[in-house]
Amino acid sequence: METLHILNHPLLQHKLSILRDKNTGVKEFREVVSEMAALECYEATRDLPLEDAVIETPITTGTFKVLSGKKLAIVPILRAGLGMVDGILDLIPSAKVGHIGLYRDPETHAPVEYYCKMPSDISERDVIVLDPMLATGGSASAAITFLKGYGCKSIKLMNILAAPEGVACIQKDHPDVHIYVAAVDEKLNDHAYIVPGLGDAGDRIFGTK
Ligand code: PRP
Ligand code: URA
Predict the structure, then answer these.
(1) Which letter does DSSP use for residue 123 in this model?
(2) If you take atom 7 of ligand 1, which residue's CA is the nearest one?
(3) Which residues make beta-bridge pairs with 51?
(4) Is 203 among the residues known to form the active site?
(5) What is the mean pLDDT of residues 74-100?
(6) Distance of CA 11 to the CA centre of its chain
(7) Is the pLDDT of residue 176 over 80?
């Protein structure tokens, strides 16, 4: 089963190039991350189940499709994942939002957890984990392991940009998790940054550098 979905729609490719440009300022960077999250959400939710509902239109009554079954939760990995939340809530306003705080140790690049708050019914929801960057994969893999510990069975991962190493990590640790991403770049550098990449997503979203 292919779990990697590279969403190479022209709009996503164009917007990703805006993010890559080092001259793109914080306002535009933030807006484009949010827009890309919404476009990716459209693809990542393609398999949401539908059911019939009877609806009265101004003209007549008919049977039409509405979303059915389990509801969604989105879980941004702090900080940078926060930049993807609003774009998704624009499309799915009823989604609940859990937060997991992880940062990469600057020496080892291993994820360190510092915050967690999930909706109480998280185990009954389809979960989409959000993080713009999938580099070594350590942060996303740890977040997914954590969510599985809560009993979540249906988990998807949505990123904007990935490295091959990160994709391989998730596919090894979590072969059941589908990954949605706009592009997979060439490699990681010695500091575990994606090359050619877009730099530090958190710093560019929040203007901290
Ligand atoms: C970045 C990014 C991911 C992680 C990816 O976060 O947002 O969470 O690195 O790297 P990995 O795949 O090697 O784990 P960072 O640790 O810089 O924290 P921040 O979001 O607070 O900037
Ligand atoms: N985190 C980022 O923000 N950028 C990278 O290239 C790798 C990890």
Answers:
(1) G
(2) 80
(3) 66
(4) yes
(5) 97
(6) 17
(7) yes
